[in-house]
Amino acid sequence: MRKLAALACPFVLLLLFGCDSTGTESSGGTAPPTTTTTTSPPSEPSTPGTVGQVDRAAMNQDAKEAVQAIGAYWRTNFPEAFNQAYRPPRVAGGYTGTDGPPCGGEPSVPFNAYYCQPGDYLAWDEDLMAAGYNQIGDAWVYLIIAHEWGHAIQARLNDDLVSVQAELQADCLAGASLEGAAKQGLITIEPGDPEELAKTLAAVADDYPWTKQSDHGDVQERISAFRTGVTGGIPACTT
Fold it and tell me: Which of 48, 64, 123, 237 could link 172 by a cystine bridge, Cβ 3.0 to 4.6 Å?
């Protein structure tokens, strides 16, 4: 997934059917995935505290491009969708361990990604990003940032538009923003991205203590929420 000017294949087709390098539909595509507010790294082969060799310069460039694309999408579409002015959240970006910005007086958590409502900012542990980037690919970075941005959007809405299933709604908003960014030419979905997105969902679904089913939903619920955003856009996530 890259911040490029044109699409080889519509995102929704990639998610539902797959797409080869020429932009034609192909069978055997993977289901659309999602991320979590507090996100743990893939369990194999890394464990928390071990990352492996990662091109961090490339990873950080992907994070920068994801922030630019997702930010541009919401800057354009939020006012139209909700008939109110849009104020973007601050992107605190990467930290390591407990060296990140505190949220509500609490220190940052290692191997975590989060939106802090009191400070109105997004942040992520660079080792978390590196673990997923190393094992899965750059779609990991885009999806984590899109999900956490979804929580920032929730914080800007009237209470009646925020679902009690806040994590699934953030997954839906992530799907809407990535699909919308692709349609606007802000990102390009590359061959292999659907598989990376599916692996991301499997890695961060409900196998970790920070992502309990009671809070975040199971894998199939999160797939369904993300797909709802992809196919129905912002309105489908707030009805």
Answer: 237
pLDDT at 35: 33
Q: What is the per-residue pLDDT across 150-184, written as a single tens digit (0 to 9) for each?
A: 999 999 999 999 999 898 899 999 999 999 999 99
Number of other CB atoms surrounding residue 157 within 10 Å: 15
d(CA 37, CA 39): 6
Q: Write the DSSP assignment of 4-45 as a string of letters.
A: -S--SS-HHHHHHT-B-TTS-B-S-PPPP----SS-PPP-SS
> Which one, of 93, 88, 55, 58, lies nearest residue 73 by Cα?
88
Does residue 115 contact residue 151 with C-beta atoms inside 8 Å? yes
Residues 6+ apart with CB under 8 A from 75: 86, 88
Report how far residue 65's alpha carbon sits from residue 18's, in angstroms, rounded to the nearest whole number: 23
Euclidean distance between CA atoms 1 and 193, whole angstroms:
6
Q: Is the Cα torsion angle 136, 129, 92, 112 positive or negative in sign?
A: positive
Closest CA to 143 of 190, 198, 86, 103: 198
CA angle, residues 159, 162, 168, in degrees to nearest 5: 160
Residue spans of the domains in the chain: they are 11-237
Going 26 to 31 to 34 to 40, the CA torsion angle's sign is: negative
Instruction: Report pLDDT for 217.
Output: 57
Number of neighbouring beta carbons within 10 Å of residue 136: 21
Q: At what angle do helices 193-204 and 219-237 cross, to 10 degrees?
A: 110
Q: pLDDT tens, 110-123?
A: 988 999 999 999 99
